[in-house]
Amino acid sequence: MDIAALSINLNQASLGQSVGIALAKKTMEAAQQNSQEMLKMLEAPHPSIGKSIDLKG
């Protein structure tokens, strides 16, 4: 294998690795944002709790 072909292969491998890392980073950021939104939703009071009393007992 000549040096030019080896250089091209190494650059392609490096590019593939960089793309994989960037994709993983975006996925992690999206997951973190989703979890933060879920935590905010869980902290908010439920709209129907405490508005009525069940007197049938």
TrEMBL record:
Superkingdom of the organism of origin: Bacteria
Pfam family, one: YjfB_motility
InterPro entries tied to this protein: YjfB_motility
Protein name: YjfB family protein
The species this protein was found in: Metabacillus elymi
